[in-house]
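sry for the spam today, last one i promise. struct tokens for design, 172 residues
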């Protein structure tokens, strides 16, 4: 059963990488499929929302009453509900090492990254200063979203969960 899940995930990943990545300056526009709280599929291309770190779909967190909840799914659901049936326009800013574009994405005039960070569903990226830092500080101060309980930094969570998957795939 675990082998079937890994094979399905590998095939899904291969399908995602079949389209060429978007390039900086090239706009992508249309309906979007939310993959998680920080990434979308638009026109068969995967795009990461710029300057934020959102929990992966399977990440869990703890609420204010120390109960676990699926914070990754909550973040993805919030983004999907915010987008609804609206058209999303993304402007890739940089291509990531893995070929997935990092982009500023909007619904109308609203920056989806700022929306996610401002409501506490994602953290402002820490690697360099960005306008999302202020929105993140306000969300923290109001104890919104992730900030209403306890959570592991999504980047640290991804690092701690990649290694076991890599070992399993290698047969260790």
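last one done:
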């Amino acid at each position: 059963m675990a082998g079937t899940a890994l094979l399905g995930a590998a095939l899904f990943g291969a399908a995602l990488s079949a389209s060429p990545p978007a390039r900086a300056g090239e706009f992508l526009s249309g309906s979007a499929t939310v993959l998680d709280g920080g990434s979308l599929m638009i026109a068969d291309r995967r795009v990461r929302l710029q300057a934020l770190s959102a929990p992966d779909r399977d990440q869990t967190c703890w609420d204010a009453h120390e109960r676990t909840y699926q914070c990754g799914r909550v973040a993805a659901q919030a983004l999907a509900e915010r987008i609804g049936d609206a058209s999303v326009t993304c402007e890739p800013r940089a291509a990531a090492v893995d070929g997935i574009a990092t982009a500023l994405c909007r619904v109308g005039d609203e920056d989806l990254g700022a929306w996610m960070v401002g409501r506490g569903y994602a953290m402002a990226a820490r690697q360099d200063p960005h306008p999302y830092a202020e929105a993140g500080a306000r969300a923290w101060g109001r104890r919104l979203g992730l900030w209403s309980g306890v959570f592991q930094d999504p980047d640290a969570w991804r690092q701690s969960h990649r290694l076991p998957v890599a070992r399993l795939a290698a047969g260790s």
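Residues 154-170 form the longest helix (17 residues). ok im logging off now
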